[in-house]
Amino acid sequence: MSIVNNTSIKRSIGLIVLATAATMGDVAAAAMTQDIEPKRIDLGQAAQLTLSASGADADSISPPMVEGLEFVAVAQSQRTESINGVSHSTTSITYQVIPQQVGVFTIPSETPSAPPVVLTVDDAGAGSSGRSAAAASPQASMRAPGGNAFVRLRLPKHDLYVGETVPVDIQVATRDGMVAALNGQPTLNGDAFTLDKLSAQPERTAEVIDGKPFTVFTWHSALAAVKPGRLSLTMETPLTVRILSAARPDRGRFAEPDLDDLFNDPSLQSFFGTSTEREMTVASPPANFSVQALPTQGRPADFSGAVGNFTVKSDVSDDKAATGDPITLRLHVAGSGTFDRVNSPMLHDVEHWKTYAPTATFKPADPIGYRGEKTFDQPVIAMQAGAQVLPALAFSWFDPSTGRYVDAHTPPVPIDVMPASTAETSAHLSPSGQPGPSTAGGVVPASTGQSKGFRPDHAVSGGTVASLLPHFFQAPYVAAPSLMMFAFLSVGFWARRRERRADEMDAAREAAAALQTAPLLTQMNRAASSSNAELFFGAARQAVQRALASRWHIPPAKVTSDEAEARLGPETDVSLLFELADEASYSKVQLTAIDIKRWTQVVNQQIKGEMA
Questions:
Q1: Distance, CA of 427 to CA of 436 (rounded, Å)
Q2: Domain boundaries, given as residue ranges, for the chain
Q3: CATH number of the domain at 141-293, please?
Q4: What is the mean pLDDT of residues 410-416?
Q5: Higher-pLDDT residue of 171, 131
């Protein structure tokens, strides 16, 4: 019974296929229709042209030739329907229409019965409403087969200067259930632009496009052109899409080739098909730009390449200081633009001031770093007391909104510099605040009422004596040599013992110093591996201080630059090491392999000199 039923079904389907094939031969000549969406776009966007032909295959459909427009095929589909036993097949091909210039373009049709379509291309800078509509339209994006995914860009402008940064939104839309996975972030295709790093997690929203649910992933970034000219770029995204393919009948039961053609018809794939996954790359339509070079006329000498809209101000950490004490001079540059090119040399070679290399920090005001504030910190030290002035700071940039350079200057900063107070000065002040009497060199001034100079001779009266015999003949002086010999031997014994105890103390001091300098050497090695100049020179100075303190028998805190110059002389390795340690704590110092080797050797020599 099963065999009979299967045979009847097979014959019935075969008759339907034969009738359909006979009818398709009588179909009239192919009729062509076309439609374009949207009908008005900005230069730099793209529209979508759909050509449909009834009773024709894809090879017979080709885009028209229109000067100023470029056509790129992005999708193809075929539909077959049966009406009153007559089958009709319609083939459709979708093209991206990319304009090369502004204007009104008429796209003719291949059949006289179909009217032409008109595409209007506006200037991208004419208004924001047209740009927003074109940018938001999914028809202006390159799509995956079947329209399952597309990429679109949202840009505020298309006329740029070299180095000008503009915010950009990169959106990847994937049809729910038809896109298996995103295989990476969007990437820039082209070497004429730079794109800031995208965030690892994009914003995710739901959107209905053409009545179909899509998930839209949005990355925010900043885009900048690196060379002038008429340029274009695209963004590409790798993804995996699901594609329906027809399931062929089992040839063991349905062996007729006509049935295979029937089951492979596109109109039946959704009922009898299976889903397969394919990796592909979806690209956005080309975004065209007009990029101008920065003008040379009126360019300031200190221009560093910053392009944007900025404000400048400066301040100091303290408007009062003592000679030799560092203060920090700050320059604040705030606004929007290319902060990577915001640089300032700050101050150098200023009379009565010692300046160090500045350091820069950036605080963004948005996730992409397009807006924010960059601060330059420069340590400076006043070398002379009195009313001093820090000169004005200069910063220049190019403003793309006006097409001109801006040269800004901050006002000079007055600083009240006081003389450095020392412990020696305070020690020689009397309670009334006046310098007291000096005892240097053992000179003691005469008190009130005493005359200065030599004292006159006076006769000194003495007492009587019991004998006129000289002292060296008297009995007490006879034993003097023996007593002196005994005293000499005793002194020699105690001196030898004291020397031995001093040697033991020196050995103990050397062992203690070794234990104290070992961690500092370890700290120097760690700082050298991480190129941390401040930590390296700080540990090196402490190690040398401990070595010299042990040698000079003074506390390590007393081993200063002045003490080292007084004992060792000026411009020695020790004094230079102390100066580099101070500079590294105030400003950024580059630490090279040669520096590491040299100063490590200096420290080891001082430690060995301590142990000797």
A1: 9
A2: 31-126, 141-293, 296-417, 489-611
A3: 2.60.120
A4: 93
A5: 171
